[in-house]
Design brief:
globular; 3-stranded antiparallel sheet; alpha/beta; 10-stranded mixed sheet; about 280 residues; about 30% helix; 9 helices
Length: about 280
């Protein structure tokens, strides 16, 4: 059953050096506060997994926390490149980064397979694409019933999945509303999971028609971190900070400016710093 605890306790108890870790959230509810705590605790040699790695993975990579990354698109959405990601791939700074690139469809199906405790996912995909030429984890399989040749990829089963959500009750059940992405599947596929939330409430009702409720038994740690998805947005709580995404291009472009930002805002910060972003309903 989920344990309500502090963010530092949740990371310390669930995330170890060398783990594969997924911080999911599709534009919405990206767990930035948790990512910062991973950096502060000095976790190393992590294999990062995320459908759309953006700024939070740029920060983790630039901090030297990552040995590799599995993904389907990487960039600063609406702005341009991830400079710390590029520096790691092109110049091996601050360390070399192994990359495994997939399509969105393959990543989503691989999470589904992991959540179902299956060894691989099957999909109609990669037809005419070049990714199978550079990714040995994209293979073909023949349907035993129709003879159709399909794509197959290993299931995604992270050691740890981390997501942000709107609310949790005091028993540790979690409610997600709005754009959900693959958060549900990421949690169900993981060996251990951490959920940061905007609020702890007595009851989750009434959920909206498109909401998802994750049961307490599927989660290890629930943490109250108001504003913990900033600069992404939390539906019903605060808007996406487009200005921060634009500013990140300048901050991350050079190693010195990135390091100065990291020291000031992450190493000398804490999860309580995110609370100033609440109260501006999207």
């Amino acid at each position: 059953m989920a344990r309500l605890c502090s963010l530092s306790q949740a990371i310390e108890e669930n995330l170890r050096d060398g783990d594969s870790v997924a911080l999911e959230g599709f534009t919405h509810l990206i767990p930035y506060a948790a990512g910062h705590e991973i950096i502060r605790q000095g976790r190393k040699n992590l294999f990062l997994i995320r459908m759309t790695p953006d700024i939070i993975y740029d920060q983790l990579i630039g901090a030297g926390a990552a040995r590799g990354m599995k993904f389907s698109w990487g960039g600063n959405p609406g702005v341009g490149s991830l400079h710390r990601f590029r520096d790691a791939v092109e110049n091996q700074w601050p360390r070399p980064l192994e990359i495994e690139e997939h399509s969105h469809a393959a990543m989503a199906n691989a999470y589904e397979a992991g959540a179902a405790n299956l060894p691989f996912a099957v999909l109609r995909g990669y037809i005419g694409a070049d990714l199978p030429k550079v990714n040995a984890n994209i293979r073909n399989i023949t349907c035993p019933f129709t003879g159709e040749v399909l794509a197959a990829v290993p299931s995604i089963r992270p050691d740890v999945s981390v997501i942000h959500a709107q609310r949790a009750d005091r028993q540790g059940n979690v409610l997600i509303e709005g754009i959900v992405g693959v958060q549900k599947e990421a949690v169900l596929a993981a060996k251990r999971s951490i959920v940061t939330v905007e609020e702890i409430v007595d009851e989750l009702n009434p959920p909206s028609p498109n909401s998802v409720v994750l049961p307490s038994w599927a989660i290890n740690s629930v943490v109250h971190v108001p504003g913990g998805a900033f600069p992404s947005y939390a539906h019903g709580y605060y808007k996406r900070s487009n200005s921060f995404y634009i500013a990140w291009d300048r901050i991350a472009r050079e190693r010195d400016s990135f390091q100065a930002w990291l020291n000031q805002n992450v190493m000398n910060g804490g999860p309580e710093d995110f609370s100033r972003h609440i109260g501006h309903a999207a």
